[in-house]
Amino acid sequence: MLFKKSKKIINKLKEDKNLILIGAYKYGEEVILLEFSIDEMPQKIRLDEFFVFEEGVSLSNSQAPYLEQFLNYSGDVRISDIYGYTKEQSNPTRFTFFLYFAKTGSTISTPYGNIVIDRIDKMPKRLIDIIEYEESD
Residue 75's closest CA among 23, 116, 117? Predict the structure, then answer.
C-alpha cells in the first residue's frame, strides 16, 4: 500500500513542474540541442536525472545532457555560462542542452515525466547567436 501512495505522489510532482519541450534542433551530424521550459528554479532542476531512454541500454551507458545553458524568459539571452552556472533566479526557467545520437522518436526520461522528440527542426537564429558548444572528449 505504501508503494502505491508513493507512486501517486511522484506522478503528481511530475505534473506540477510542467516541463515543456519547446524545440529540438539539429546541431551537426550526431548532435541535437533541446530547449525546455519548466516551472522550477534553475538550481533545483535535476538535470543529472535526464537521459535518453533506449531499450536494452543501461542507465550508466545512456546519453545524458551535455553543456546545459539557461536562457531568459523569452529565450533570446543566455543567462548562464557554457556549463550551466547561473546566479539568476527565474521561474519558469528556460534551458537548453545538447544530446548525442538522439533522433525523432527518442524518449527523454526526466524526473518530471517522459518527453518524446516528435520532430527535429533547424536551429533558430536567436539560439545560433547565444548558445555555445565545445566537443566532448
Answer: 23
CA gap 39, 17 in Å, rounded: 5
Residue 127's nearest CA partner among 78, 73, 66 is 78
95: containing domain: 2-128
Q: Are 82 and 101 spatial neighbours (Cβ–Cβ below 8 Å)? A: no
Instruction: Let me know if residue 135 belongs to a domain.
Output: no
Query: What is the rounded distance in angstroms from the CA atom of residue 81 to the CA atom of residue 50?
Result: 20
Contact 117, 24 (CB under 8 A): yes
- Structural domain total, the chain: 1
Q: Is residue 136, in this structure, part of any structural domain at all?
A: no
Is the model's pLDDT at 121 over the cut of 60?
A: yes
pLDDT surpasses 90 at 27:
yes
Angstrom distance (rounded) from CA 120 to CA 90: 27
Q: Answer yes or no: is 106 within a domain.
A: yes
Q: What is the pLDDT of residues 37-51, one digit of tens each?
A: 999 999 999 999 999
Task: Give the span between the Cα atoms of 111 and 46, in whole angstroms.
Answer: 7
